[in-house]
Amino acid sequence: MIIALLACTCARPEVQPETLASADPKIVPAAGTVSDDPLVAGAPTPVERLELSVALWGVSVPNAVKGLPLAYDAKTDRLYHSSITTNWLVATDLKSGHPVDAVDLELANPSNIANVQARDGVLSWVNSKAHEVRVVDLEAMELSGRVDIDGRNGRGIPTASCTMDSAGLTWVVDAEARSLSGHDPSCGSAITLDGLNEPRAVAASPDGELLAVLDGGQSGGTAYLVRDGQLSEVHRFPEKLPRRVAVSNDGTVVVADRRLSSIPADGGKGFTLTLPDTPRRLAVVDDVVVATFADTGFERGRPGGEVWLVELASGDVRAKLETGYETLNIATDPAGGRAWVGQGGDGSVVEIDTRKGLVSRQIQVASGAEGVVIDPQTEDRYILSRLGGSAIYRWGADGAFETVAEPLWPFELAIDPKRRLLMAATHYESGVTIWDLDTRAETKIAIPGERSTGDAIGDLEYDAASGRAAVVYPQYGTVTVVDVTTGDVVWTKTYEEFATGRDAGPGEGLVAFTPTQLVVAWGRSTVLGLDLETGDELRRQELRAGATKEGGKEGKVPKGERPPKGDKAAKGEYTPLDGDRPPKGEKPPKGEKPPKDAKPPKGAKPDKPAKGAKGQRAPGSSGSKGAKAASGDAHQADLGPSRGYPMDALVYDPNGRVFLGNRAMDAETLEPLEQAPFDKLVFADETRMIGVAIGKDRRESLVICDPKDLTELSRQALIQARMIPAHYTYDPRTRRLYAAHLDRAQVTVWQLD
């Protein structure tokens, strides 16, 4: 049972016109665009490949998802952003509203912990986790300067803040060296600003003529203005130094922590405004202060951020604009009265009219492929995109391509071909959204939950026999079963172990139906068996401890039975944002220091973990539950805490087992059985078992096993992953294997024997 080496109609990896011919004959790769093929040498030839950027926009550009450090340049009238998964800086044309060009930043490791500044056709990109500076000529779209200086201890965020002045100097606050230095556009030389004690933050005025600097001391600190290299003291803070700073063209300094305060240039009385939280970013546009907040949406009962527009002169709030989750970076156009805010949650950008005080549009600056489900009646493929902009696409059997829906951050798909239903679990709206496949009529089932704790790795499982779906929301700590035929919530149970603290990394929850119970897992150590009708806990398995707990206390771990330290869902790789490094002597916020065992694989330094892929259980199931990076070329054997991106798969095998990653358990008792020679199960029935193994070099291989004894029958290398593994779906009717590559925004299809 191996992949058939069928002939392909093209030699290049881009989608060819015949793949999408019936959709639009103009959908072809543009000349001179980037070719990015993930297939390893000797991999079988795909029978189909869909490149989402070509299908959506008619141009092949590198994908750039999540985090979205971004900048605006008035000279080119383009928005520029970078990614956690690639080395590319991507340019978005604001007239068309989609990416049009890209330049390779030549980075050792991509990072979205970065600041991007642009002015007069020059852009600087600064990696905040390492001393890396890249300067790009935006008119030529080529790298014109670079600096690489390793951090002294390799921890924390040495680059605490940066900005660009009117001379094109990129000013960088080095938290380790306690210095503020300016790099020229060619990165050939740098100057250090003397007279500072412990600089914490720097910002340039909109015209670039002034710098505002926050400088720490033994107690409190000082705000300075810098003009022509000369420091002038503006204000002393006797107790606590604010964390954010911005400055207007006339020299009015604005500072913020839990309060927003202005310090007028003429020495007059400023304003002080109480804020819901410390802003993630602060900027001045014309006469307005723009502040972004990542978590204020909790006041509205669901995740989501806000952007506040505050009058610079009076401190009056002009508008509070609702945005998506993880609202972070700001790019501004002072002359045009515009601001753009990057949304780390789904990788889109919100454009704000600061004069009118409203959101003018949302721009999809990336795309993503995070899972595929297949309608066996029509042979249409439905593709999930979460981190490249919230969307669900239909890739028709005839090659047609269209956007089906744009729910608020969908993280899992499932399909019921008999009832003609497509469903998605959504993060922002905290519920299940259902579409009629034939009429596109939409129904929503809200799921109850408390305050969210971050970008969580949730899961959706659908049981076609009962018409019920189970959803895990780790950010709420909930497991919920809904009836999609009636729109009712059947039951909800809360387990605090799912969730992690704010900004400490994602919780991780996985769920799978068996004939007798609902199996739920968090991390890679704790597995529960819940009653299908009531949600009562029937049994609990601590894989690390090797002990099964029968009938645990409902909704909570019984006292004394909590997992050993380190067995909870991994804290992930969250790192404080730029400028969030605690001042000397202050303890970091709880949960913001990554655990020692959470270091990502060499070559991958993620900021915020993303949702993984789910293995397909049946023809109508979602194929998007993910796999973790393996510790060896064969398979992952360690069942310790997840590292980096914790991408496991929980899959019911009709041969009487449940697989959590590579660990098989008895489907009834949840007792551990043998380990499989793969890292995630993609498909299993009585005659065939298909899995995927991921090696140390992030090479993904297709593994075919005997479904009775897990004997490996064949292994074939397929894909070289970057940071996030591909999401696989197998269609047993056509015997085709689909791989959805999130970071490349591609879907590749192979024919199996």
Largest sheet: 5 strands, antiparallel
Globally, the shape reads elongated
Low-confidence stretches: 4-32, 151-156, 501-505, 552-646
How do the strands of the widest beta sheet line up side by side? 42-43-44-45-46
Give the helix tally.
1
Count the strands?
57
Structure description:
By secondary structure, this protein is mostly beta strands. It is 1% helix and 42% strand. The chain contains one helix and 57 strands. It has a five-stranded antiparallel beta sheet, with no helix packed on it. A four-stranded antiparallel beta sheet has the order 1-57-56-55. A hairpin with a 4-residue loop joins β52 (689-694) and β53 (699-705). The protein is elongated, with a radius of gyration of 26 Å.
Summarize it.
The protein is an all-beta fold and 753 residues long.
What are the key terms here?
mainly beta; five-stranded antiparallel sheet; four-stranded antiparallel sheet; 753 residues; 1 helix; single chain; elongated; 1% helix
List the helices and strands and how they pair.
Elements: E1 48-51, H1 52-57, E2 70-73, E3 78-81, E4 88-93, E5 98-104, E6 114-119, E7 122-127, E8 131-137, E9 142-149, E10 159-164, E11 170-174, E12 179-183, E13 190-192, E14 198-204, E15 211-216, E16 221-227, E17 230-237, E18 244-247, E19 253-256, E20 259-263, E21 272-274, E22 281-285, E23 288-293, E24 306-311, E25 317-322, E26 327-333, E27 338-343, E28 348-353, E29 358-363, E30 372-374, E31 381-385, E32 391-395, E33 401-405, E34 410-416, E35 421-426, E36 431-436, E37 442-446, E38 459-463, E39 468-473, E40 478-483, E41 488-494, E42 509-513, E43 518-522, E44 526-530, E45 537-542, E46 547-550, E47 650-653, E48 657-660, E49 663-666, E50 672-675, E51 680-684, E52 689-694, E53 699-705, E54 712-720, E55 727-731, E56 736-741, E57 746-751
Antiparallel strand pairs: 1-57, 2-3, 3-4, 4-5, 6-7, 7-8, 8-9, 10-11, 11-12, 12-13, 14-15, 15-16, 16-17, 18-19, 19-20, 20-21, 22-23, 23-24, 24-25, 26-27, 27-28, 28-29, 30-31, 31-32, 32-33, 34-35, 35-36, 36-37, 38-39, 39-40, 40-41, 42-43, 43-44, 44-45, 45-46, 47-48, 48-49, 49-50, 51-52, 52-53, ...
